[in-house]
């Protein structure tokens, strides 16, 4: 029996395990401010890697970064009825701009400094960016406008869970305007594909990309697409969304242009976003009972060297030996970038450091002691192959030069291995069903089934859709999306058997 | 007479010229939200370059990035009396977390959703980061803690000016905790030096680094150091600050550690920040009557190729010729990084594009027409040498391969040239004075003197300092700082001639 590094396993209590990984890997913590977290260096380092890699892809598809105000005047929200309906319930409202002494030794908002119009802390920026688009866009020559913003946003949450649901979170939001519907739809799907490939290639997170049904659309959108990832407890996590907004926001905000024939038209707009939620997805995709496992592409440090210091004069030689290894590794290239290698010389016991890096999920951990140095060796621990079959730690002693030569290949293997493992799980846990009873049974039996169900349906809308959603809700289920490029659909609708099915849709419990 | 690209020159109206550069170079614009601006792609691209280069230096000195909450509970501010005194007058206060219909077709804050304790949108994060430090720091082994955050902050401003004074701005704030005062003071000066070298080496902005007098200290600090840059109108711009906080914040927030002897001590803390203000400084340091001039290190695009398209079938060949040049340039390295080269193929007249890039301040603009292509040439425009002595545009035709070979050296020359030009101006415009009358006269005569005055002083404090500050204020002057490594000081204090001077201090009008 392996004794794992975490006090709780996934099988024992998945929700508790999730929180434990976050705290044991020093990723984040409660801040003392309601619903807001502190993202600590290891968690933030992962986010910075995600930012860098996703930002490169956003630029490569022709978008430019900008920055728009944190505050949005209340009146902006009153313009797009559906949009405000979707967000009005959960927004932070700024009403004053000064504090004064309250006469009891404390402070209070100054009644003299009440704002004429309250300001909303942005929950998303369609309205304020739309008003800029209206200024920028006059002629077809100004189109397309392709911009992106990295920002913090606030949606007031009563029940929060770190990275998955917090009142403040970090994200990027892309906003574009186009001359034609065709072009805007193409943009929407292009960014969906950017998210899909980013999730798969960088985060090693297999996802299903597809369109959401009507009831799951972004408030004010004509169509919403998402990528959905399967967590190890079988629940779905929406990991990125891309919206085709048609002319809804353009109408509300008067984004018009003169076309080549001199006539005025409404612009077609899109928006798309991915957030720090992705880090929650990373944990529940790759974590194990020893902590997090970070895919090398997004690991802040890919190789961590732990010298086994003994507080003796020999330590200096050992550190020099390790520095030399560090230098050699830092000149290597893996997965298209210089290898990121750290030497951990903190005044802490070597075993504590080893387990610290195991819990953080550094892809490769090198332990180097006097004996290793004497033999020109290093002891190598791969985070993705931590134990041998007999349950012992799978540490292997390798000649240092041989090891250095292998680093790029090792990192590539770990990246691929994590992806394959998660993909196999995703594939194995999507099943098809033919009746409502079958679905009820599957999800009723606790612990028996951890996966998603795919059913053929008629693409119901309006009240028909509402009825289905109500039934799903009674089982704590939701529609996820209609997978792109899914199998051809024949036969009757799963929900309304008197109608023909036109596509397949995924049903799951979700975060 | 040169006809310049901007409708207003620096000599005519410096303040108006500043706003004109920002709008003509598409850097930023008013957002419609009080005191907040929209930072457009060229302005934000410059900020991203500054971020990247400064972030590298912050990491290289051992700091790690984190993220702390946007909101700070009111009670946190009540703990450090001086600190809140300094900030309480200008903060955005969140009082509600929900909107409801107001019965008149609009929305209003829901009285049922009033927060028990108001939340402040962070004006700076000492208090919330200090409370995290109190959790993180138990033993001397946990020290030093060296962290940094890139974030938006809000300080309510009545009179705003883009990049220089806006209610919301972007910055980085470093926060560190140390076991000893010596170490914390060393950190404070290390970061001052990081700012100094960043300003000089990256932004080509000469600065004076030094300590602020007591009255200019950060609220709650024991000592504040700054870098001060001279704008072209002679005013000073504080471009970065580094604070030694002693144990003031540690006391207020109970940041204690057990030292090696087992006794509890208060930690010594520091904080330091640099903001989007730097972009305002960039404009007023390097801008000229044709717009901005961006030093190559922080230019989002260092070389811009403008093909002279004519809407004829020949365009395809010309574009191919330009793409080929672009490819060759993109493989070059200059100033330690790959050269950033853009080809501008927007559907706009070539002359409009040329002047657009002149106003934006791209370091090198290449214009390529059919005749250039036929001769394997390019027409080169250096933004820092825009006109010949006869006032004509200084465009020169160069063989394309020869030009490509020269690109790295050209960019290095432009970087150095801009720095030297600004440094010469700084040096020429700091004068010494021996009497209050002399200073009054210098600054009284409008337009005559655009610079700073350096005087020997006794390092006055308390009421003596207040008297001086009052006098300075009557002349619209402020103390800037006491330059590091300044000349030895002898003789009497400039302000109180019966006391000996101990150091030299700078006096200037300031932004």
UniProtKB/TrEMBL annotation, chains A, B:
InterPro entries: aa-tRNA-synt_IIb, aa-tRNA-synth_II, aa-tRNA-synth_II/BPL/LPL, Anticodon-bd_dom_sf, Pro-tRNA-ligase_IIa_arc-type, Pro-tRNA_ligase_II_C, Pro-tRNA_synth_II, ProRS_core_arch_euk. One of its GO terms (biological process) is prolyl-tRNA aminoacylation. Pfam families: tRNA-synt_2b. One of its GO terms (molecular function) is proline-tRNA ligase activity. Keywords: Aminoacyl-tRNA synthetase, ATP-binding, Cytoplasm, Ligase, Nucleotide-binding, Protein biosynthesis. Its EC number is 6.1.1.15. It catalyses: tRNA(Pro) + L-proline + ATP = L-prolyl-tRNA(Pro) + AMP + diphosphate. It is found in: Cytoplasm. CDD domains: ProRS_core_arch_euk (cd00778). One of its GO terms (cellular component) is aminoacyl-tRNA synthetase multienzyme complex. Transmembrane segments: none annotated. Residues 29-295 form the Aminoacyl-transfer RNA synthetases class-II family profile domain. The keyword S-adenosyl-L-methionine does not apply. Catalyzes the attachment of proline to tRNA(Pro) in a two-step reaction: proline is first activated by ATP to form Pro-AMP and then transferred to the acceptor end of tRNA(Pro). Consists of three domains: the N-terminal catalytic domain, the anticodon-binding domain and the C-terminal extension. Belongs to the class-II aminoacyl-tRNA synthetase family. ProS type 3 subfamily. Homodimer. This is Proline--tRNA ligase. It comes from Stakelama tenebrarum.
């Amino acid at each position: 029996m392996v004794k794992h590094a975490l006090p709780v396993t996934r099988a024992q209590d998945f929700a508790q395990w999730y929180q434990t990984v976050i705290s044991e890997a020093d990723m984040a913590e409660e801040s003392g401010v309601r619903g807001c977290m502190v993202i600590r260096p290891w968690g933030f380092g992962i986010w910075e890697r995600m930012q860098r890699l996703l930002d490169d892809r956003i630029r490569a598809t022709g978008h430019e970064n900008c920055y728009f105000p944190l505050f949005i005047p209340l009146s902006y929200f009153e313009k797009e009825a559906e949009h405000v309906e979707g967000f009005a319930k959960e927004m932070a409202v700024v009403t004053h701009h000064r504090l004064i002494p309250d006469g009891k030794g404390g402070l209070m908002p100054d009644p003299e400094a009440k704002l004429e119009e309250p300001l909303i802390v942005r929950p998303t920026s369609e309205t304020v960016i739309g008003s800029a688009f209206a200024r920028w866009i006059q002629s077809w020559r100004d189109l397309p406008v392709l911009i992106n913003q990295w920002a913090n946003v606030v949606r007031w949450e009563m029940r929060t869970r770190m990275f998955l649901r917090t009142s403040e979170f970090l994200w990027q939001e892309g906003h574009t305007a186009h001359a034609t519907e065709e072009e805007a739809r193409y943009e929407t799907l292009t960014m969906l594909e950017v998210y899909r490939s980013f999730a798969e290639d960088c985060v090693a997170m297999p996802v299903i990309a597809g369109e959401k049904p009507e009831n799951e659309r972004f408030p004010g959108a004509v169509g919403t697409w998402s990528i959905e990832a399967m967590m190890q407890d079988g629940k779905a996590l929406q990991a990125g969304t891309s919206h085709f907004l048609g002319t809804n926001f353009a109408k509300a905000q008067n984004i018009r242009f003169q076309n080549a024939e001199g006539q005025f038209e409404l612009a077609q707009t899109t928006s798309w976003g991915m957030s720090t939620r992705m880090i929650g997805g990373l944990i529940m995709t790759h974590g194990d009972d020893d902590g997090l496992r970070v895919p090398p592409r997004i690991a802040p440090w890919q190789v961590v060297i732990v010298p086994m210091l003994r507080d003796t004069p020999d330590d200096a030689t050992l550190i020099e030996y390790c520095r030399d290894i560090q230098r050699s590794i830092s000149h290597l290239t893996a997965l298209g970038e210089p290898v990121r290698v750290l030497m951990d010389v903190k005044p802490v016991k070597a075993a504590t450091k080893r387990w610290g890096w195991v819990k953080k999920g550094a892809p490769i951990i090198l332990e180097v002691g006097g004996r290793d140095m004497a033999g020109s060796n290093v002891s190598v621990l791969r985070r993705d192959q931590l134990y041998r079959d007999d349950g012992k730690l799978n540490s292997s002693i390798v000649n240092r030069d041989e090891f250095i030569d292998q680093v790029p290949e090792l990192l590539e293997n770990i990246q691929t291995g994590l992806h394959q493992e998660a993909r196999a799980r995703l594939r194995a846990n999507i099943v098809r069903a033919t009746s409502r009873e079958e679905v009820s049974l599957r999800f009723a039996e606790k612990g028996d089934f951890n996966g998603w169900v795919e059913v053929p349906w008629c693409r119901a809308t309006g009240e028909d859709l509402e009825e289905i959603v109500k039934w799903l809700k009674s089982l704590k289920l939701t529609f996820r999306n209609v997978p792109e490029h899914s199998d051809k659909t024949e036969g009757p609708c799963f929900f309304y058997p008197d109608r023909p099915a036109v596509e397949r849709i995924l049903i799951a419990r979700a975060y």
